[in-house]
Amino acid sequence: MKLTRSQLIALIVLGVLTIGVYGCLAGILARNSRQIASVLTYSSPTPLPSASMTEIPSPSPTPLPPPTPTSTPIAPQTRYDLQVARAPQEPTLRLQRGHAYIKLGAYTYAIEDFNVAINLDATLAEAYLGRGEAHFRLKEWSAALVDFEQALTLNPDLADAHAWRGYLLSERGEYEAALEALRQAVALDESNPGKHILLAQALLRSGSPAEARIEYTAALSLEVRSVKAYVGRAMACAEQGDFDAAQADLNSALDIAPYDPVALNGQAWFYAWYRRDHLAEAEQLAQRAVAGARDDLERARCLDTLGWVYYRQGRYEEAATTLEEAAGLATIEGDVVYSEIAEHLEEVRVAQ
Questions:
Q1: Cα–Cα distance between 170 and 168 in angstroms, integer?
Q2: For the purposes of burial, counting CB atoms within 10 Å of the CB of 177, is it exposed (0-12), middle (13-18) or buried (19 or more)?
Q3: Under 8 Å CB-to-CB from 225, ≥6 apart: which residues?
Q4: What is the DSSP string of 242-283?
Q5: Is the pLDDT of residue 64 over 80?
Q6: Each residue's pLDDT tens digit, 104-124
Q7: Residue 333 CA, distance from chain mean position
Q8: pLDDT score, position 42
Q9: Distance (Å, rounded) from C-alpha 205 to C-alpha 316?
């Protein structure tokens, strides 16, 4: 049979298409075979379960978290660090850095530097004084007293050592020895208002408000904006019955430092003892004083005032709780150093 020209063309086109289809199929098979080979080469086969016994793989141990390292307190930086690193055997540098640590509240590091200074120069009275102050801040008062006395043995004219020794003794209620030491401190450093204030505090607590008032006035003549001197003199005036003068001094203190816990506590104390119609205000003032207290002993005094305010209001349970907290903060080496806190707490317990 003879094909026409159009039929021949159709057969040729059909043949070309058939060849193209077979070529595409061959290419696809080639690519798939390479992928299968790749999978078989790099993948481990999944084992089939045994028909006779299921093998349980041994459990892999759960990795334990790494232990949390115990943080070692890092000494705060001071301006003397580089100098100490260059000359670690220089006692004066150790002394200076020790005092810097005290200002930063790093009392343990301060003691370490003072120890080094003393080991390098056992005659350095200032190192014993500094170490005593650090011990005092850490509530290690027996050790502090030993250091203050050693400083005075080495240098009897060291006014700051007399002042610290007198202050510690006064806080412990040993007023006779405290007054002797503080009078010596004032005699050696009359231009220092802080020493007059320490002497005045000891006089007031020992029952000599008239003499205390004189010393507070002396402090104010040297530092006219001393909040502690105004508040202390106000207490002395109140003890003498001069309530107008007391309130005037408290107003001065609050004008100078309206948020100072000493000023706030002083006004609260005055209201609690001499202006019972102001007890609600006294409570607010005392609470603010407690919140702003800068150390345990200051907080203890503010809590004592707040507890007494609660007592005056007839809130005996709150008074007892507050005074117990005050007693805890004021406990040094097993004793409550502020006798008035213990006395107030006893009175509250009797009232309950």
A1: 5
A2: middle
A3: 256
A4: -HHHHHHHHHHHHHH-TT-HHHHHHHHHHHHHH-GGGHHHHH
A5: no
A6: 999 999 999 999 999 999 999
A7: 20
A8: 34
A9: 26
Rounded to whole angstroms, the Cα distance separating 337 from 246 reads 26
The CATH number given to 259-352 is 1.25.40.10
Q: How far apart are CA 97 and CA 257, in angstroms?
A: 31
In this model, does residue 30 exceed pLDDT 60? no
Amino acid at 263: A
Tokens, residue 68: 């949390």
Superfamily of domain 78-156: Tetratricopeptide repeat domain (1.25.40.10)
Residue type, 208: S
CATH of domain 157-242: 1.25.40.10
The arithmetic mean of pLDDT across residues 12-31, rounded, is 49
Cα(33)–Cα(40) distance, integer angstroms: 10
